[in-house]
Write a structure and sequence with these properties.
Keywords: Kinase, Phosphoprotein, Phosphotransferase system, Sugar transport, Transferase, Transport. The chain is of the alpha/beta class. The chain is built from five helices and five strands; from the N terminus they run βααββββααα. The chain starts with 10 loop residues before the first strand and ends in a 5-residue tail after the last helix.
Length: 145
């Protein structure tokens, strides 16, 4: 990846969504604001959720679009939203929603980096305890390498 996929402007330390659909919308809105996807990406995320849950465990969901939504992706990027009150994601508590958009299969490398971070319980707790966007970014900035 040549450009950073995560910037501080793409992180929300306190999301406002209370449902899974609202959380997917919040994740997509950040990606749209970043110029990485078009508004057509949200319906593709919803379609993906109908076929398979994007709940990954350890309080994390990674909603992303279907293969048919590739035209809605303009650049690879992440959005990161933390929720103090968990979102019910198919019966699982979610405190973190990471929206991913990847061109030319870059999403696989991004997913791998996020999976490594969230496989470590201590790092997950550090993300839950982070004081704000700056601390969250410090803990996630390896995804840009």
């Amino acid at each position: 990846m040549t450009n950073p996929v995560l910037q501080k402007s793409q992180i929300r330390a306190e999301g406002t969504a209370t449902t899974k659909l609202e959380a997917m919308r919040e994740a997509t809105d950040i990606l749209v604001e970043a110029g990485s996807v078009t508004a057509d990406y949200l319906p593709a995320m919803i379609e993906r959720e109908k076929s398979v849950s994007t709940y990954m465990g350890n309080y994390l969901a990674i909603p992303h679009g279907t293969n048919e939504a590739k035209d809605a992706i303009l650049a690879s990027a992440l959005s990161f939203v933390r929720y103090t009150t968990p979102i019910d994601w198919d019966g699982n508590p979610v405190h973190f929603v990471v929206g991913i958009a990847g061109i030319e299969n870059e999403h696989l490398e991004i997913l791998s980096k996020i999976a490594i971070i969230f496989s470590d319980d201590e790092q997950v707790q550090n993300l839950r305890d982070a004081a704000g966007v700056d601390e969250i970014f410090q803990q996630l900035e390896d995804v840009n390498e």
